[in-house]
Write a structure and sequence with these properties.
Layout (H helix, E strand, L loop, with lengths): L2 H30 L1 H8 L4 E6 L6 E2 L5 E13 L6 H19 L4 H13 L5 E7 L1 H8 L8 H4 L1 E10 L7 H4 L9 H5 L1 H4 L4 E7 L5 E3 L13 E4 L3 H17 L4 E8 L5 E9 L5 E2 L4 H4 L9 H10 L8 E3 L4 E4 L2 E4 L10 E3 H6 L3 H12 L3 H10 L17 E2 L11 H6 L4 E2 L2 H12 L4 E2 L4 E6 L2 E5 L4 E3 L5 H17 L13 E11 L2 E14 L6 E8 L9 H4 L1 H14 L13 H12 L35 H10 L3 E5 L4 E4 L12 E6 L1
Parallel strand pairs: 2-8, 25-27
Antiparallel strand pairs: 1-6, 2-3, 3-4, 3-5, 6-7, 8-19, 9-10, 9-24, 10-11, 12-15, 13-14, 16-17, 18-21, 19-20, 22-23, 23-24, 26-27
Helix pairs in contact: 1-2, 3-4, 10-20, 12-14
Length: 676
């Protein structure tokens, strides 16, 4: 072999090697950036379009679905794809099947539509939108379409719609799953829920319509993570219905209810309702976390805690409240009964259970008038204005001023003592009361329990203690007794129950307007149950009830609390021990028989005559739920989920139901609901 040939072969070998390597590199680039390359080749007709991922689900604590993404499909027909034999042999059968399934056109109308598309060589004949996956599956089996996209001409695209199976219930807490201006869990946990978009190659055809085309560069979207909330939809339903009933009764502007698990801080129910221009109550804004209010008399608990801890008073202290009218500097303060002559001299417990403004304010003013900032600092120390760092976006910043504030005056201190010139959110106030129920431990409230990627646990909430002990055990004991006395024979004695014990405080607050206090009121009640071993705490606030119907906290807000308490007791019997009403065995069974409608054998109890301790208490019966005030869809959903067969008459809002609330029923019993 000559030298020239050797050189020639070497050059050829190197050239082939270079070409081979170059091809590998090019193919690699295309595999990585296939969309850009193909878009450059066909810039106006082929694009890689983003495929939205399926959003993760939101569940309640029991695994009931609160929000999910449901795919809906649009189907169309490329009439140029099937060959003549396939089309003309089968188009009549296709028209018949489409007419039977979709029920929007006659078989003849579909025949005409398909023939016209074929004659005009139409590449995109839209047939129907909003189809379910099962409907799409059926359509794929129809004549012509069963030959597939590339032989039968079936085109379909997917759109995802976010739905909430329980309708309007808990909607502001859950959110809407919309692209912008979202709220609740949907917004706060969007990064987990939203998933990762995919890509699909699309071809532009007639009328600017993009048609999917099959290729190896498509990227499948990744589904979002699932969120498991602490909400119990049963609790939410109970709380929502109790609140809306009272708002309607008192023609109130708005209302809030929150139910929290004492030990953990888990939110079991949260509802904020506003009256619309059509006098319908809806969740327009989450006032539970996003609005601050002057708490009024419910704040007296914090004032007495500070007074006791700072040794300003003790349980033997007495205060002269006079005739119910007392002048602090240049301003008069009144007790609610001043027109009846006032309360006169009151003990500390009487000041609290009778809600004397003068009594609490005299205690705080005498104790802190020389150093009012000490009182303010003590309030901060016990966490009344603490930043809760709550799960949901939108928590309002509390307002707690000190003596250097421009609006501070000599009357600021006595008025702050009973909840004026202070602004905190309903959730902050409930968190404070919950710490009293929880033996002084202030736990962080939360609404998301865990996050899962399929079956893989990505995050689980652990209890977070904000303040380990807000006061001494001695003070706690005193305050708990005060709260029990409020219900037993104080301002909230109207909700006292021999069976369902609770503790709490009423509040009736004048609403500030244009620099002064108007004749509009805010009614509230905060408390917990059972009184002895608290399991749940609850806050109820009703804004601007009609004063001609009622406005005091015990009249408007406390009954909402009591209804929630009683219904939760009836579902999960929480029986106290060592209570005076249970000393008599016969009386005990009379009460239980009345409560359970003679179903006392549905739970096991074990007790000793002296201590009367209930070891286990549980019922598993089904009761008729109330759907009065709900829309038709929500009512039917709840009743059918309970196991009832539903018949309805009319449209709008449920006015009445044929079966009584709380009664037992058998599976598939029929209930008639009447709507107006």
């Amino acid at each position: 072999m000559t030298e020239k040939k050797k050189i020639f072969y070497r050059v050829m070998f190197i050239s082939i090697l270079i070409v081979f390597i170059a091809n590998i590199i090019i193919l690699r680039i295309i595999s990585i950036q296939g969309d850009s390359e193909l878009e450059n080749i066909y810039p106006s007709t082929i694009k890689f379009k983003e495929i939205p991922p399926q959003r993760g689900n939101i569940f309640d604590i029991n695994g009931d679905l609160l929000a999910t993404s449901v795919p809906f499909f649009t189907i169309a027909f490329d009439s140029t794809v099937p060959n003549d034999s396939l089309f003309f042999k089968n188009y009549k059968d296709l028209a018949r099947d489409l007419s039977e399934l979709l029920a929007d056109k006659t078989s003849y109308d579909y025949e005409k539509l398909l023939l016209e598309a074929r004659e005009n060589k139409k590449k995109y004949l839209k047939i129907k939108s909003g189809l379910s996956y099962s409907e799409l599956k059926q359509i794929k089996s129809f004549p012509i379409f069963s030959s597939g996209r590339f032989k039968g001409g079936l085109i379909y695209s997917r759109n995802i719609e976010r739905i909430r199976p329980f309708g309007k219930l808990c909607e502001r807490v859950i959110g809407y799953g919309r692209n912008n201006k979202d709220v609740g869990i949907e917004k706060s946990y969007d990064n987990f829920l939203k998933g990762i978009p995919g890509k699909q190659m699309m071809q532009k055809i007639n009328n600017g319509i993009w048609k999917p085309i099959s290729n190896k560069y498509d990227i499948e979207p990744k589904i979002g993570y699932d969120i498991f909330s602490t909400i119990d939809i049963r609790f939410q339903d109970i709380a929502h219905r109790a609140l809306i009933k009272t708002l309607k009764k008192y023609n109130a502007e708005s209302g809030v209810i929150i139910v929290m698990e004492v030990k953990s801080g888990a939110i079991k129910a949260m509802s904020s309702l506003n009256k619309s221009s059509f006098n319908i109550y809806k969740e327009y804004y989450n006032h539970a976390i996003g609005s601050n209010y002057e708490p009024g008399s419910t704040f007296k608990l914090a004032s007495l805690l500070i007074a006791l801890e700072n040794k300003i008073v003790d349980t033997l202290s007495k205060v002269d409240t006079g005739n119910g009218r007392y002048k602090f500097y240049d301003r008069y303060m009144y007790d609610s009964n001043y027109k009846q002559g006032g309360h006169g001299v009151l003990s500390l417990s009487d000041i609290f259970k009778l809600s004397s403004n003068i009594g609490v304010s005299k205690i705080i003013n005498e104790g802190f008038k020389d150093d009012p900032d000490l009182f303010v600092n003590e309030l901060k120390k016990i966490g009344v204005n603490i930043n809760l760092n709550f799960d949901l976006i939108g928590q309002e910043v509390s307002y707690l001023k000190n003596s250097s504030h421009s609006t501070w005056s000599k009357v600021s201190l006595p008025w702050m003592a009973f909840g004026y010139e202070i602004q905190i959110s309903p959730l902050q106030l409930l968190t404070f009361y919950n710490s009293i129920a929880n033996d002084g431990n202030m736990v962080q409230p939360y609404i998301v329990q865990k996050i899962q990627n399929g079956q893989k646990l990505e995050y689980e909430k652990q209890k977070n203690v904000l303040i380990s002990q807000i006061c001494s055990k001695e003070t706690l004991k005193v305050l708990k007794n005060f709260l029990i006395e409020v219900v037993e024979d104080g301002t909230a004695s109207n909700i006292f129950s021999e069976v369902n014990s609770c503790a709490g405080k009423t509040g009736t607050t004048k609403i500030a307007k244009d620099g002064s206090y108007s004749n509009e009121y805010r009614s509230s009640f905060v408390g917990f149950f059972p009184a002895e071993s608290p399991k749940y705490s609850c806050m109820v606030l009703v804004n601007k009830p009609d004063v001609n119907i009622g406005f005091y906290g015990n009249v408007v807000a406390a009954p909402v609390f009591a209804e929630v308490r009683d219904l939760l007791f009836s579902r999960e019997i929480i029986l106290p021990s060592n209570r005076k009403v249970f000393k008599d065995k016969k009386l005990f069974f009379q009460i239980i028989n009345k409560l359970l409608k003679n179903k006392n054998n549905d739970f096991i109890n074990e007790f000793n005559i002296e201590n009367f301790n209930i070891v286990k208490s549980k019922i598993n019966e089904k009761n008729i739920p109330s759907v009065i005030g709900m829309n038709k869809m929500d009512a039917i959903y709840i009743l059918e989920n309970s196991g009832l067969t539903v018949k309805s008459n009319g449209n709008g809002i449920v006015e009445s139901q044929s079966l009584s609330v709380g009664d037992n029923f058998n599976l598939n019993d029929t209930i008639m609901i009447t709507l107006i």
